Amino acid sequence: MFGARKGEYEMPADAIPTKCASCGMGMVWIKTPAGKAVPLSVATIEVRDGVRYALPHFADCKDAKEWSKK
């Protein structure tokens, strides 16, 4: 797909914005097709052909390392 970014997800139209508990940036939670919850960064939203896409919030959260599971 033209303009697609690696690792992005489609953001549902009914996604409810919230803030990251750690850094305070805007994000929304979605469920992947596999049923896994993923936070998407509002700052990375791109609209292509009327569909919103965003990258996981881990890509731009300054505190992402604190939340990673080792």
In a nutshell, what does this entry contain?
The protein is mainly β. Helix content is 6%, strand content 31%. It has one helix at residues 64-67; strands at 9-10, 18-19, 26-31, 37-41, 46-48, 51-54.
Architecture overview:
- With 70 residues, this protein is mainly beta.
- It is 6% helix and 31% strand.
- It contains one helix and six strands, in the order ββββββα.
- A three-stranded antiparallel β-sheet has the order 1-6-5, with no helix packed on it. It has a three-stranded antiparallel β-sheet with strand order 2-3-4, with no helix packed on it.
- A hairpin with a 5-residue loop joins β3 and β4.
- The termini are far apart.
- The model has no long low-confidence stretch (mean pLDDT 88).
Topology:
Blueprint: E1 9-10, E2 18-19, E3 26-31, E4 37-41, E5 46-48, E6 51-54, H1 64-67
* First and last CA, distance: 33 Å
Q: How many strands, which pairing sense, and closed or not: the largest β-sheet?
A: 3 strands, antiparallel
Mean pLDDT: 88
- Count of runs of 4 or more consecutive helical residues: 1
| Total E-strand runs | 6
- Beta content: 25-35%
Unreliable sequence segments: none
Q: From the alpha carbons, calculate the radius of gyration and give it in angstroms.
A: 12 Å
In sequence order, what are the helices and strands, one letter per element? Answer: EEEEEEH
**What share of the residues lie within helices?**
under 10%
Query: What strand order characterises the main sheet?
Result: 1-6-5
- Tell me the overall shape: globular
Structural class: mainly beta
